[in-house]
Backbone:
């Protein structure tokens, strides 16, 4: 039997649309206020993609930066995984478009659909390929453009989301470093808590469906809220236990950036102090699968992470799905830390 190989992050990159939409801009669209949005969510502004800015274009931009950061060329990639629920087409997978754009001629490519947990799912899958020695260089992208699927007349949802992409290069690393553990979970019984009802094969889009805005996001927000606060703690503790670590060992907690109140309530429940949590939800809102790799890129590039640090990522989202990774940072190739 082959020895298992640890996988580590050797480069990070991110891309967000230029257009900033503030809470004041949203006040012009629906009955809401900056004060309501900030106190209930912590969000002050979000990025909104132009018609020609898509998951593929933002994902490719982030991917190129992650490769540059790692000092690896695209032809060395074995696999591209794109976590997204807002891909350019129903099919083929957006990862295929990114593969062409960046010139990753030797790479296989596929998407993972796990909503806001997508990046954690994709990283865990990629880790498996490297761990067994089957592959060496895997690009893991989280990218979403949820603003293209919002009902801009629904104040329950339109204030929450933003667009963007983040990418990491995953490659073999030294024992004891890189991805130490993961936990993934799903409660499919709650598939109807958040999602898009129309446009799939069960409920194909019709003129009537478009009038009813069935092609946009519907959500029971307070159910997501309660689920998220509980599952963030449970998933983090589970992944930490698998890595034989505890909350005290966390140097930086990088949660899915959906809502500041959710993050603070989950942290309180775990006994995790705020200065060990990375937060950027006020700038970007909820960018779904992109939120963790964007936060990771900003954390690494601003010096919040150094070699040897224990990082915990945790995601939750539609499905309902959740997941967490424990990572001992070892980004030697990227020249960080
Ligand atoms: N502005 C003003 N009032 C609003 C707004 C708004 N933008 N949105 C809702 N309200 C109103 C509601 O209509 C309600 O009024 P009512 O009592 O007259 O009916 C009132 O505010 C309170 O509503 P609540 O739902 O109790 O507000 P809550 O404090 O729960 O905050 C929120 C709502 C922000 C949506 C919260 O529940 C939340 O963040 N939930 C999690 C959402 C989330 O993270 N979703 C993403 C999941 S990840 C994925 O897979 C994409």
Residues:
């Amino acid at each position: 039997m082959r020895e298992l190989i640890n996988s580590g992050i050797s480069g990070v990159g991110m891309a967000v649309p230029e257009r900033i939409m503030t809470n004041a801009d949203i006040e012009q669209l629906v009955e809401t206020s900056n004060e309501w949005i900030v106190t209930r969510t912590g969000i002050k502004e979000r990025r909104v993609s132009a018609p020609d800015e898509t998951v593929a274009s933002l994902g490719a931009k982030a991917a190129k930066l992650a490769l540059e950061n790692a000092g690896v060329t695209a032809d060395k990639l074995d696999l591209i995984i794109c976590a997204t629920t807002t891909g350019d087409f129903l099919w083929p997978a957006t990862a295929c478009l990114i593969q062409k754009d960046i010139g990753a001629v030797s790479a296989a490519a596929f998407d993972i659909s796990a909503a806001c947990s997508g990046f954690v799912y994709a990283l865990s899958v990629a880790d498996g390929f490297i761990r067994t020695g089957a592959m060496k260089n895997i690009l893991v992208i989280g990218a979403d453009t949820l603003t293209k699927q919002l009902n801009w007349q629904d104040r329950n949802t339109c204030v929450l989301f933003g667009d963007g992409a983040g990418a990491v290069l995953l490659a073999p690393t030294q024992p004891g470093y890189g991805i130490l553990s993961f936990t993934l979970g799903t409660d499919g019984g709650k598939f109807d808590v958040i999602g898009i009802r129309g446009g799939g094969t069960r409920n194909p889009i019709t003129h009537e469906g478009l009038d009813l805005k069935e092609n946009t996001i519907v959500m029971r927000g307070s159910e997501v809220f309660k689920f998220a606060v509980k599952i963030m703690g449970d998933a983090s503790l589970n992944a930490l236990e698998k890595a034989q670590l505890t909350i005290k060992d966390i140097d930086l907690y990088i949660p899915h950036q959906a809502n500041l109140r959710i993050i603070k309530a989950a942290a309180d429940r775990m006994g995790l102090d705020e200065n060990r949590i990375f937060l950027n939800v006020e700038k970007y809102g909820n960018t779904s699968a992109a939120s963790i790799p964007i936060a990771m890129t900003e954390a690494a590039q601003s010096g919040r992470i150094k070699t040897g640090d224990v990082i915990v990522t945790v995601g939750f989202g539609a499905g309902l799905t959740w997941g967490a990774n424990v990572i001992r940072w070892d980004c030697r190739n990227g020249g960080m830390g």
Notes: Residues 85 and 113 are 6 Å apart (CA to CA). The longest strand covers residues 163-172.
